[in-house]
Amino acid sequence: MLKTFSIGGVHPHEDKLSAHQPIQQAAIPAKAVILLGQHIGVPAKPLVAKGDRVKVGTKIAEPGGFVSAAIHSSVSGKVAKIDSIIDASGYAKPAVFIDVEGDEWEDSIDRTDTVVRDCELSCDEIVKKILDAGIVGLGGACFPTQVKLCPPPTAKAECVIINAVECEPYLTADHQLMLEHAEEIMVGITILMKAVKVNKAYIGIENNKPDAIQLMTRVAAGYAGIEVVPLQVKYPQGGEKQLIDAIIRRQVAAGALPITTGAVVQNVGTTFAVYQAVQKNKPLFERVVTVTGKSLPKPSNLLVRIGTPVGLLIEACGGLPQDTGKIISGGPMMGKALANTDVPVVKGTSGIVVVDAREARRGTVQPCIRCAKCVAVCPMGLEPYLLATVSAHGDFEKVEKEDIMSCIECGSCQFTCPSNRPLLDFIRMGKNKVGGMIRARQAKK
Question: What integer is the mean pLDDT of 345-371?
């Protein structure tokens, strides 16, 4: 019997329209806009100023703190300005604007296709390379990777878990990455295992990707300690806590870090980026992005330079359909609707989903009928109807006590609600308010 997580979950339509579309290089933009905050934690501090010339791979911002990540130029040219731009969240954020001139790379980057298998670096040297390359979690969380590889002294890693689930509808970037770069991903896994000093790794892949399961299993046979684990299709299995539960049957306690279960979880795209950083000296300045939609002429998987405007990717896939109702950054369950197509691609941009007007339209909100479907599907064992209602009434002390901060914002509750209640909208608002309260309390200590 296939493994899966034990609490909640839903089964949205998969709509993997771009499955098996080969990864194609997206066009380089005429102007790149590279955000300084592309990760959880403190935004990076710029190292460049107006008029400076940069190459592809030049470090243009350094980490602003322990939980932060370096930023590198994805293009070559001249820095036009450091200003703000509306990002996927809808807020103005600082960014480096670069006028593109050619495509000159830093000489230190190995641009050959030769797979480099052996890594002679020490654990500390591996972590330093990852830090310098600005690698973050590419599954959407964007947590700085070097921090995950340095667990607190009270915790000990026992295994590495590679998240190759890609459970969001529409998205296929990780699937195609496995089909085209399985060997490099395996080397990346061995590097991660060495960094955290473990001899066991699991790769979790849902069984709607049988070709990836077959290929990765065959390639993994040549690497000691790496096991492919086929998983039942269920959303949100790509959640870190849900994946740990599915694969090693351990639960992450409320408020605890995943490392307390002995597992270090990394996305498969992150793993490929680790290979490129450690073995090829290549910083994280590009990633695979799924650009898709039922009315989009050419759903595709594109290798995109960070800082490329979303509009350029949509044009490459046939242009914006007439019936477009919404453009989502990420998947339809957890992604966010974009205010415009000038929003630049960031490290965490896994997909761009063009939704037609009919599907984008929300149903009429009706009163809660106390069916408890939202409770049944919540993968964190919470009571979404309660969290949403109390947040809407502004009682944030109560929702904090009801453990609102454990919500992973997967959207399963809102997806399953027969009354079309905007549960996730109110819960996100409540989490934002409670998070502010917690930070204010900590600042007073």
Answer: 95
**pLDDT at 154 (0 to 100):** 86
CA dist 345 and 168 (Å) reads 19
- The SS3 call for residue 60 is strand
**Per-residue pLDDT, 143:** 93
Residue type, 125: E
Residue 239, pLDDT > 80, answer yes
Concatenating the DSSP letter of every residue in 235-287 gives BTTTSHHHHHHHHH--PPPTT--GGGGTEEEEEHHHHHHHHHHHHH---S-EE
Single residue among 299, 331, 360 that ends a domain in this structure: 360
Average pLDDT along the chain = 96
Which range marks the domain in which residue 58 is found? Answer: 29-100
CATH number for the domain that contains residue 317: 3.10.20.600
Look at residue 152 in the predicted model and tell me its pLDDT.
87
| Bond before 230 cis per omega within 30 degrees | no
Assess whether 275 and 227 both reside in one domain. Answer: yes
